[in-house]
Specification:
Distance between the termini: 11 Å
Helix content: 25-40%
Largest sheet: 6 strands, mixed
Order of helices and strands: EEHHEEEEHHHHHHHEEEEH
Shape: globular
Length: about 290
């Protein structure tokens, strides 16, 4: 057998566009907006637009070398991946054959559509200024079964929205304290933004491509929601996931196979953004090469 580590948690980054706007009231929110306005005035919209996203992974990061269409190995019977042995670090010891498992999965981009029936997903690395923190959260969540998937997803959306840790309120702050180290918590401040007034958001959106406007606005809405301390998962999801379906990509059909850097083939079949079936094909040539 050859050791190949397959993480039990998957990440889905979906990209599309739509426009949503939140409305909040109360003295606390007004005070926050005043402070944010002063910060934005000092920063300037031009500099604001140059701030990098927390996670930058996009379709250009996919290595499509060796990809196969959905009908590849379509008649094969897949065995449960969890039946295979693991090493002490949690890596599966893969052998030749066809395997599958259903995983938790997470959305890593706010203000976008969720997966639809025709969407294809391919393997790509997690990249961006907060990549290490995102990966750390998912690994830490495996060791804390008492932390729900919803709590993990809210924390991820909060980080992706570039929320200052000083503005974390409610359950998301407790989740962060449980899943992140002190050093990682301090790193949340890097590249973070305050709550932007509506006029600043609009001015910034006017200088953005249409595909980025909904993401920018959704992130600000999430920052505002988190700072309020009064939110539910449904409230957060309303801004993070757009209703409807994204325009389909005919070159990336549902069930497309990606050749993983380790040499096996993998494909992702999501049911919404929170559950994904992963199928793996391990060629006998790969195992033979690993045994040499």
């Amino acid at each position: 057998m050859r050791l190949i580590k397959l993480a039990p948690l998957m990440l889905l980054a979906v990209i599309s566009s739509h426009s949503i706007q939140a409305q909040f009231s109360g003295l606390k929110d007004k005070l926050m907006k005043v402070g944010a306005a002063q910060g934005v005035k000092a920063l300037g919209v031009d500099k604001l637009l140059k701030q990098p996203a927390a996670i930058t992974t996009n379709f250009k990061d996919v290595d499509r070398t060796g990809e196969m269409m959905p009908d590849f190995k379509s008649t094969e019977k897949f065995q449960p991946l969890y039946l295979l042995p693991k090493n002490p670090d949690g890596g599966y010891l893969l052998c030749e054959g066809y395997f599958e498992m259903t995983n938790k999965s997470y959305c890593l981009q706010a203000g976008t559509y969720g997966p639809s029936q025709g969407d294809g997903y391919m393997f790509a690395p997690v990249l961006g200024p907060k990549e290490a923190i995102v990966i750390s959260i998912l690994k830490s969540a495996e060791k804390h079964p008492e932390v729900t998937q919803h709590d993990v997803q809210i924390l991820l959306w909060t980080i992706i929205a570039r929320t200052k840790f000083a503005n974390y309120s409610g359950n998301v702050k407790l989740t962060a304290l449980k899943l992140l180290t002190t050093k990682e918590l301090t790193q949340l401040e890097g590249g973070a933004l305050g709550i932007l007034p509506i006029d600043v958001v609009q001015k910034a959106k006017d200088q953005m491509p249409s595909g980025l406007q909904a993401i920018f606005e959704a992130e600000n809405n999430i920052r505002q929601l988190v700072a309020s301390g009064n939110y539910t998962y449904a409230d957060m999801e309303k801004y993070a996931i757009l209703a409807g379906m994204a325009p389909p990509r005919t070159d990336v059909p549902r069930g497309i196979w990606t050749k993983h850097p380790d040499g096996y083939f993998v494909r992702y079949l999501p049911s919404g953004y929170s559950v994904t079936k992963v199928q793996v094909y391990v060629p006998k040539e790969l195992i033979a090469a690993g045994a040499k």
